[in-house]
Structures are given as C-alpha cells and as structure tokens.
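Ticket #4471: structure output looks truncated?

Reporter: J.K.
Steps to reproduce: submitted the chain below (173 residues) through the standard prediction queue, then opened the result file.
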Amino acid sequence: MRIFLTGYMGCGKSTIGRKVAALMGINFTDLDKYIEERYFKSVPDIFAQEGEAAFREKERQALHEVAQFEDIIVGTGGGAPCFFDNMNRMNLAGITIYLAPDNETLACRLLKSKTERPLIAGKSKEELMAFIEVALAKRAPFYEQSKIVIRGINDIQPAEVVKLIQDYLNNNA
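Returned output as attached by the reporter:
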C-alpha cells in the first residue's frame, strides 16, 4: 500500500502522516527529508544554490523512487503535485489524500513553524495570508485530483484518516 499526502505547506502532511503510519503499522517518509538525505543538502540550500527548477527535478526523481516503495505513507512537499506528471504518478501508484485546512489555520501554523521555508521567509501574517490565497488558487486544481479530500478540518485525528482510507479501499476494491 502506498499513500501520498498532498496539500499546502503547513497543512499537516508530516504530522498526520507520522501518526497515521504508526496506527497502520507502515513506514512514513517526508519527501523533502528524503531529498535532503539523497542529495546531502537542505531544501533551502538546493533552492538557494541551484534554483527552483533544479529542486523540482530532484523532487520529481525522488517521487518516482518512493512511488516504488511498499507499505508507506509519503508526505509530499506542497508543490510536488503541481509539477511534471507528479500528481498522475501518485494517483497511479497509490491513494492520494489532500489535507485542506482553512487558510487562517495554514497561516498560523506557518508563522509558528520552526521549519525553514524559502517561499515564505520574512512575510507578515497579512502578507502570508495573501500569498497562501494566490498560491492555493494555482495549486488547488492539482491537489483536488487526490482520491480523498479532507477539507476544512483543522485538527483531523489520525484515526479519522485511517477510517477514510479504509472506506476508500472498501469502496474501490
């Protein structure tokens, strides 16, 4: 089984992914961490030294690799579904889940986050809210291609996600 969590940065892909993987007894991989370990550079360093296009190519390659793994939940980077054939690749390889809390929740989480995020560095809450709105307008059409969409639930529990996955599997077997 392969499960890919999609959604905007700060939506909870890594947090919920780890918890759901533990409940299901399978592995969790954060795609950005996978890239960092594979290339021995942080994502911000890849962006700074090589540019976004080079990062997206590395991300695509990493996604193709993890799409071969068994019994895994993959927390994708926020932009991963929006480039190349990535969303199609994930849909063919497994179950895709779009985590979509409201924009206010995203902004608050991102402002509190200790993770370095090159695309939003130095933005005020107001600037961040506007940035999220514009970015989601572009990215939502890709995220919406996910097989399961969890919209507007800001604190979804791992057991609820497991139930949605089980329901999906039961209805699409």
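Triage note (M.O.): checked the attachment and the full token line is present. The two ends are 13 Å apart (CA to CA).
Status: closed, working as intended.
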